Amino acid sequence: MTELLGPVTRLGLDASASEEPPTRPAVDDRAVRIDSFPGGAHTVLVTRGGAERLSLLVVPPHATPEAARAATAGSVRADNVTRAAQILTDTGTGT
């Protein structure tokens, strides 16, 4: 991810989606802070550099290739304001 985005300083994960993650894993010999946030199912928040944030869609592994492509295409549109869970539902991936 750092090759595409530059230095990642923080990751935000849905509080209810997984077990307790490590709080400061090392990435390229640098500590990356991991926080949890409510209501962000199927989303990872990435903070790079100083404070620029990106929201990344997490496509479930059971998604068909066609549904994964459709979900990804829908999530990267410049005018997209649809939540990740809705994108997955709309493309037939579900949760």
Give a description of the structure:
This protein is of the alpha+beta class and 95 residues long. Helix content is 23%, strand content 29%. The protein has three helices and six strands. It has helices at 2-5, 65-75, 84-90; strands at residues 8-14, 26-27, 30-31, 33-37, 43-48, 52-57. The strands form two sheets. Strands 4-1-5-6 form a four-stranded mixed β-sheet. Strands 2-3 form a two-stranded antiparallel ribbon. β5 (43-48) and β6 (52-57) form a beta hairpin. α2 crosses α3 (84-90). The radius of gyration is 14 Å and the shape is globular. The two termini are 25 Å apart.
Major beta sheet, strand line-up: 4-1-5-6
- Gyration radius from CA atoms, angstroms: 14 Å
User: What is the average per-residue confidence, as pLDDT, rounded to a whole number?
Assistant: 81
Could you tell me how far the N terminus lies from the C terminus, measured between alpha carbons in angstroms?
Answer: 25 Å
Can you count the beta strands? 6
Q: What characterizes the major β-sheet?
A: 4 strands, mixed
> What portion of residues belong to β-strands?
25-35%
Count of DSSP-assigned helices: 3
Helix content: 10-25%
Large-scale geometry: globular
- The arrangement of helices and strands along the chain is HEEEEEEHH
Secondary-structure-derived class: alpha+beta
Instruction: Flag low-confidence runs.
Output: none
